[in-house]
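# step 3/5: fold
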Amino acid sequence: MNRLIAVEKQSDIFASYRNTPFEALLSYHNFRQPFPEYVQAELLVSMCMDNRNQLHIPNNFAYILRSGGANLRHNEFKVSYAVAVGGVRYLAIIAHSQCGMVNLHERKDLFIDGLVSNAGWDREFAEDHFNQFSPIFEIGNEIDFLLSEVARLRNRYPGIAIAPFYYRVEDHHLYQVLE
């Protein structure tokens, strides 16, 4: 079953996202809607650190947390800060196609070789580093991880609206995700 819902026109946006920062995010990014001025963030965006993912949004519209695979497991204090101090009530979690955090084990040698040649690490230390941290940051399937992360965070932050989105590197558009 295809869980991605394209957003090609305003009426494609889920009714539950209307009149929220989720609708604004989709409108700014997919439709290049003109930017108003924002004085404070209305949204927290969690997305992958991948350099191919660039959002088209106005300044001051959103806090943005970038981590491999949009994984917030070790960034919850930052989420709490944006909620408690920044006052955001909406969290968009954005997974993407071709994510490097999927099937990390397939890139183990590349990872280790890169740390040895680029960072000057000892091979054994680099391998231990990979073996210690790759299970924490491996996300498996992007959509499955995205939906599990959304469910986990909804349980942790029940007063915050949390929505899953998907960024297709192939066309640079945001998609809604059926839950």
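# step 4/5: annotate
Residues 95 and 166 are 5 Å apart (CA to CA).
# step 5/5: archive (pending)
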